[in-house]
Specification:
By secondary structure, the protein is of the alpha/beta class. It is built from 13 helices and 15 strands. 37% of the residues lie in helices and 17% in strands. The longest helix is centred in the C-terminal third of the chain and has 18 residues. The chain is globular, with a radius of gyration of 21 Å. The structure holds 4'-deoxy-4'-aminopyridoxal-5'-phosphate. 4'-deoxy-4'-aminopyridoxal-5'-phosphate binds next to α5.
Length: 427
Amino acid sequence: DWSSDVCSSDLNNDNLLARRKNVLPNGLGVAFPIFADKAKNSEIWDVEGKRYIDFIGGISVLNTGHSHPKIVEAVTEQLQRFSHTSAQIVNYESYVTLCEKLCEKAPISGDKKAFLLTTGAEAVENAIKVARAKTGRPGVIAFVGGWHGRTLLAMGLTGKVIPYKKMFGPMPASIFHAPFPAPENGISEEDALRGLEMIFKADIDPSEVAAMIVEPVQGEGGFHQLTPSFAKKLREICDKHGIVLIFDEVQCGFARTGTLFATEQLGVEPDLMTSAKSLAGGFPISALIGRAEVMDAPLPGGLGGTYAGSPLGTVAALKVLEIIEEENLLERSNQIGTKIANFLTGLNNPKISYVRHKGAMLAFDLVNSNGEPDVEATNSLKAKAFEKGLLLASCGMYFNTIRVMVPLTVEDNVLDEALAIIEQALA
Ligand code: PMP
């Protein structure tokens, strides 16, 4: 029983927070004033022995839970053999096996290729590099509320100014943001298409656009779902103008939405697809997967990275794929999503609006009596849940969306306990 562990007296949250404040810059935020000691599946214990239920999963990284025993075993075994060679210097079998499996499972027809990186932002940046190499064009279309990372190019693609872009300009050139259709934000598919048309009139000719990048379900932007009909329109526009279509599956991928990739539910194939986060159950690895003729465009040596495709990440990711199958996590994702959605609508609470989910990729908005975003209520729900031992995260263009990223391996009794906390915290 970890919660009864005795902690040394100076290793408490307040002391650590004070040390953190002295040495870390302001720009590096932290959601909760606690420091982790241990974690298991959907629970975290802080250095003072207090237990929390984790509905954030390291920002959607832990669909298979904290420290899944099979992943721990595989990584431990790998560590004892070797931890790093740099895949571009001496490659290893698990790297190739993982790429084979990703190509086999990616919902793209025809010949495919894949390669590995370290972070989501890096996968996104490489997708743009590959698309530019293939087309010889500069432009990129991204979407309002889209979120693609914090590095310079990825930040430029991200469609939200505060806090991600403010003070960090100039932004990389030739990136334009089209509206993303989201009924929650009052934007229809027609509005979004018209916005795209305006970009082609006002900013860049489609013949100069290399790529269009979109999330099948927006993550940080508020869990807004791309519809099959809008995805089809984007595919048609890209086909018409020779634009590479990129689906960013970094947050919505790896069983979160009830299919391995959220793309599978759209009936449309992208040319390139990024993957990261839950791909490797807590180990930093990401991937770019795509049509072979696009992926092969850059010259030898143009792609890669010192740590890209770490062997600890590759063996972890191979286990994640096994676990998703063995533990029926696709089905479990749908069960969890339906259960939480039914629970939330059953509360009949007028503050809760737009409960939406694809599998367990679920979010809801908090609104005031006029139906407007209620940031105060959102922050208060997070704070009260935290007091009661539940970690909840928000997102969205208006900071009033609560999103659920609980491990799909969560035990039923832990899930019930968390929902009871949400009910009490809302009350
Ligand atoms: N794309 C999406 C859709 C994301 O949600 C994120 C991270 N929130 C990223 C890219 C960037 O990933 P990373 O933080 O690993 O660079």
